[in-house]
Amino acid sequence: MGAPPRDRLAVADLAGLTGPAAVRAVPAGELPVLAGRIREFLVEKVCASGGHLGPNLGVVELTLALHRVFDSPRDALVFDTGHQAYVHKLLTGRGAEFDTLRQAGGLSGYPSRAESVHDLVENSHASTALSYADGLAKARALNGETDRAVVAVIGDGAMTGGMAWEALNNIGGAPQRPVIVVLNDNGRSYAPTTGALAAHLKVLKQNAGAQACQNLFTTLGFTYFGPIDGHDTTGIEAVLRRARAMRRPVMVHVRTVKGRGYRPAESDEADCLHAVGTIDPATGTAPQPSTPSWTSVFGQELAQVAGEREDVVAITASMLRPTGLHPMAQKFPERVFDVGIAEQHAVTSAAGLAMGGFHPVVAIYATFLNRAIDQVLMDVALHRLPVTFVLDRAGITGPDGPSHHGIWDLSLFSAVPGLRIAAARDPARLRSLLRAALDMQDGPTLLRLPKAPAGNDIDAIARMDGLDILHRSAGRPLDALLVPVGPMAQAAFEAAAWLEAQGIGVTVVDPRWVIPVNPALPALAARHRLAVTIEDNSRTSGVGSAIAQACRDARVRTPVTVLGLPRAFVGHGSRTDLLAEAGLDAPGITRTVQELITQPPVAFSSQRPAFSQPARRAR
Questions:
Q1: Which of 163, 300, 525, 555 has its Cα between 20 and 30 A from that of 240?
Q2: DSSP letter, residue 285
Q3: Predicted local distance difference test score (pLDDT) of residue 207
Q4: What residues does 279 pair with on adjacent strands?
Q5: Higher pLDDT residue, 6 or 287?
Q6: 372: nearest Cα among 362, 385, 359, 358
Q7: Which residues are catalytic, by number?
Q8: Alpha-carbon distance 478 to 593, whole Å?
Q9: Does residue 15 carry a pLDDT above 80?
Q10: Mean pLDDT within 64-73
Q11: Does 601 score more than 60 pLDDT?
Q12: What is the C-alpha to C-alpha distance for residues 154 and 136, in angstroms, rounded to an integer?
């Protein structure tokens, strides 16, 4: 028998995609077949593991063209945000590892420098790629490397971020430094892109095929190509080759369809199956969760409060549904504002709304509010404005990895004067704390909630000076005071039962409002042999550090041990496993208290779990 036709090989075996050279060797006529097989592969693997499906289905042909025109890693390919880099991973030889996608020790859901030399940038916060490209182009020029291209791929959603425009200003102002910007325009981030830029791009797409004319990008100093069909690999290749030959700043405007080729994604009005858990590949649906998420509890309660108070408004940075604002937007669309991927603007716009007599709720992922620390500090807190920040995905988030864990917010924002920070242990406390925050009119408030099922309510057995007592050993010495932050209460509650069974007297207290420290907490600590704080935040300068300082200030000699996360970038894995690895589950808390009870006390200590750091694997 003769060799099977080449198109059958492309369809049946992606193992041959060992790197960019293999991609360039595929005959142009077989590229549509290869693109179809890649989509089948993505649907199979991502539906099984969870991950970013819609964005990757939309960039198959574009990524093929990029690797056929440019020679990675000699030429730099920078993917903004990076959640659309699954195709790039496949084309650079990592197809066999997709069964481990987003699992501990497995393939990252974002570019990873530890995985491959083809992954240059792994920061998955949006709107940064153009600044990386500007710096790389400057480095190329200084090194005399004029034959090494710099390409940045950015979506229209990420182009709404301020950093992107700061970079465009610099790139377009240096015509002697070649940078190719590929604008992947699918009209969305999660939801449809909004604002003046979206309107301008829509006009350009409506005029596709017309005589080239002046537009926003040419005014900024770019040569503009587009809009071009983002699902025609050979057409994209031709334009990219022209762009490279021009040796100056070029904007290549590509039209793509998010979720392309997979009917459940293309028909999903919410976000084209942007990010999914484990789903049925035939239908694109997931089993209904048996327990509501923290996000849904918040969203429903906010919508309820908004119906009672006309002064309550909400702001999202292009993440309406993921942060729980969709219920309020359905009922009161005129009072919910999507500002695009623009966290700094979101915070200062909220300050303006507060000055105008409203109480804004800024709902945002904890990791993304880090980008607006100056605005929280100087534009909100300095003016003592009533703005409530609700931080979704606070703490360990799980499979999205280092850049998405919300493990720095307590450390950063505990330093903001006048900012009051709360953490809810259960759905009932989330509802009551949200209402309490919205009742405060003399300064900003912050409420953090995790990415997890909300679980059952944990009722207090007593209330003491604003502190909720969750457990108190009867008829035993007061050995250990456990101070969990928010959802850490469940693990502390379970640990208390185990410790009590071993004859150790335990009190578990939930401060609810964790910053500033309630003065009653040091007084309570003084009645115990030792105190242990538990938080899914960096142990550096978090709640535990604040409580230890409060005890020192009050001349309380009870030693305080801080359980928290290391001063490190924590990798991807399940939330349950990562918390256990850090000693933040019931067994870990129990072990810590047992060890402390048998060791001489010190004034302050900090547990130091060691997270393994991945070794770089060149490809």
A1: 163
A2: B
A3: 83
A4: none
A5: 287
A6: 362
A7: 258, 343, 371
A8: 13
A9: yes
A10: 98
A11: no
A12: 16
Bond before 516 cis per omega within 30 degrees:
yes
Residues 6+ apart with CB under 8 A from 606: 539, 544, 561, 562, 564
Environment class of 616 (CB within 10 Å of its CB; exposed 0-12, middle 13-18, buried 19+): exposed
Supply the Cα-derived Rg of the chain in whole angstroms.
26
For 602, the token pair is 């010190």
Q: Which two tokens stand for residue 163?
A: 């950093």
Question: Distance from CA of residue 343 to its chain's centroid?
Answer: 13
Residue identified by tokens 């509802």 is 431
Phi, psi of 200 (to 5 degrees): -65, -45
d(CA 58, CA 40): 13
Residue with tokens 């200062």: 348
Listing from the earlier edge strand, what are the strands of the sheet with 480-484?
462-464, 467-472, 506-510, 480-484, 530-538, 560-565, 604-606
∠ CA 107-137-164, nearest 5°, is: 70
Helix (H, G, I), strand (E, B) or coil at 76: strand
Q: What CA–CA distance (Å, rounded) separates 319 from 341?
A: 8
Both tokens assigned to 409: 């917010």
Considering only 104-113, 360-369, 509-518, which range has the smallest mean pLDDT?
A: 104-113
Question: What is d(CA 332, CA 326) in angstroms, rounded to the nearest whole number?
Answer: 10
Angle (deg, nearest 10), helices 31-49 and 60-69: 120
- At 434-481, the pLDDT tens digits run 999 999 999 999 999 999 999 999 999 999 999 999 999 988 888 999
Instruction: Give CA–CA dist 255/238, Å, rounded.
Output: 15
Over the range 284-314, which residues count as b (16 or more CB within 10 Å of their CB) and which as e? beeeeeeeebbbbbbbbbbbbbbeeeebbbb
Degrees to nearest 5, angle at CA 157 with 153 and 158:
55
Beta bridge partners of 314: 336, 361
Closest Cα to residue 532, out of 500, 507, 514, 552?
507
Confidence band of 604 (pLDDT split at 50, 70, 90) = very low
Report yes or no on whether pTM surpasses 0.90. Answer: yes
User: pLDDT class for 527, splitting at 50, 70, 90?
Assistant: very high
Q: In whole angstroms, give the CA distance from residue 161 to residue 147.
A: 30
What does residue 614 show for φ and ψ, rounded to 5 degrees? -65, 145
What is the percent of the chain where pLDDT is above 70? 94
Please tell me the total number of residues recorded for the chain in this structure.
619
- Spatial neighbors of 142 by CB under 8 A, at least 6 apart, are none
Distance separating alpha carbons of residues 207 and 65, to the nearest angstrom: 24
Q: Of the candidates 531, 530, 532, which has an alpha carbon nearest to the alpha carbon of residue 584?
A: 532
DSSP string, 106-148: S--SS--TTT-TT------STT-HHHHHHHHHHHHHHHT-TT-
Higher-confidence position of 477 and 284: 284
Give the DSSP per-residue string, 277-345: SS-BTTTTB-PPPSS-BHHHHHHHHHHHHHHH-TTEEEEESS-TTTTT-HHHHHH-GGGEEE--S-HHH
Q: How many CB atoms lie within 10 A of CB 503?
A: 11
* More confident site: 286 or 191: 286
Pick the more confident residue, 176 or 10. 176
Query: And the tokens for 520?
Result: 């009653």
Query: What is the token pair recorded at 352?
Result: 């303006």
Amino acid at 322: P
Q: What is the pLDDT of residues 244-278, one digit of tens each?
A: 999 999 999 999 999 999 999 999 988 899 989 99
Q: To the nearest whole number, what is the mean pLDDT of the chain?
A: 92
How many Å from the N-terminal Cα to the C-terminal Cα in the chain?
35
